[in-house]
């Protein structure tokens, strides 16, 4: 199967009613190298109690890996936490100040069956159990605050680079290259991210960042 191209991603998103364009990394002045001390965190654009933003961004943090692989057990989640650490990143999941650990919209959609029709089995653990498992396996628990006000979805395909959330100018940040690093099904990963934004009422506007 041929690798997914940026043009393929634009076509898929436009087919879902999105506005999508391809931009160069050179035109994204706040793009920077991934820092191994930064957490592998959710794409959520809101403010956070965490300041180690310079890790990769995936929907739900490490839940994206479990979701894509069909991993539904606490033991499986702990194994992914350790895998992410071994790969040189700080594993994390998050909650928020209004819904505690159910404050991650991606996990809430997953655990309540909103991905059932896409063929994803639901996790056997709830939000608190998932967070406890990640913490027990050496991961970080992040807490977001405030309301969602993201204006755009940034899909970054430039390996080992990322962008940081900006609380007063919110954007969803999806590091598509990170899906490849963890051997995920990249098309499924990106479609799940797009579906998450849609189901949460986010902006159907994307920029695909290339080298």
What would you say about this model in short?
The chain contains seven helices and ten strands.
**Total of DSSP H or I helical runs spanning 4+ residues:** 7
Sheet with the most strands? 4 strands, parallel
Distance from first to last alpha carbon: 22 Å
Quick check: average pLDDT?
Answer: 97
Tell me the overall shape: globular
What key attributes describe this structure?
10 strands; about 210 residues; alpha/beta; 4-stranded parallel β-sheet
In words, what does this structure look like?
This protein has helices at residues 6-15, 63-69, 74-86, 105-111, 127-136, 176-181, 186-199; strands at residues 19-24, 32-33, 39-40, 47-48, 90-96, 140-145, 153-156, 161-162, 172-175, 205-210. The mean pLDDT is 97. Helix content is 32%, strand content 19%. The strands form 3 sheets. A 4-stranded parallel sheet has the order 1-10-7-9. With 211 residues, it is of the alpha/beta class. The protein is built from 7 helices and 10 strands.
List the helices and strands and how they pair.
Blueprint: H1 6-15, E1 19-24, E2 32-33, E3 39-40, E4 47-48, H2 63-69, H3 74-86, E5 90-96, H4 105-111, H5 127-136, E6 140-145, E7 153-156, E8 161-162, E9 172-175, H6 176-181, H7 186-199, E10 205-210
Parallel strand pairs: 1-10, 3-5, 5-6, 7-9, 7-10
Antiparallel strand pairs: 2-8, 4-6
């Amino acid at each position: 199967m041929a690798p997914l191209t940026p043009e393929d991603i634009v076509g898929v998103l436009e087919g879902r009613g999105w506005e999508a364009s391809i931009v160069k990394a050179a035109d994204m002045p706040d793009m920077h190298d991934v820092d191994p001390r930064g957490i592998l965190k959710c794409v959520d654009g809101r403010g956070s109690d965490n300041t180690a933003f310079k890790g990769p961004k995936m929907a739900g943090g490490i839940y994206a890996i479990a979701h894509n692989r069909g991993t539904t057990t606490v033991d499986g989640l702990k194994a992914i936490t350790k895998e992410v650490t071994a790969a040189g990143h700080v594993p994390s999941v998050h909650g928020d100040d209004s819904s505690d650990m159910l404050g991650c919209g991606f996990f809430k959609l997953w655990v309540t069956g909103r991905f059932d029709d896409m063929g994803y089995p639901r996790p056997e653990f709830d939000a608190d159990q998932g967070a406890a498992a990640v913490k027990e396996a050496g991961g970080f628990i992040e807490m977001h605050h405030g309301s969602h006000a993201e204006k755009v979805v940034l899909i970054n395909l430039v390996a080992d680079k990322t962008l940081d959330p900006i609380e007063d100018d919110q954007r969803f940040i999806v590091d598509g290259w990170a899906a490849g690093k963890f051997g995920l099904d990249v098309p499924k990963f990106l479609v799940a991210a797009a579906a998450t934004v849609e189901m949460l009422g986010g902006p159907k506007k994307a920029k695909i960042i290339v080298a």
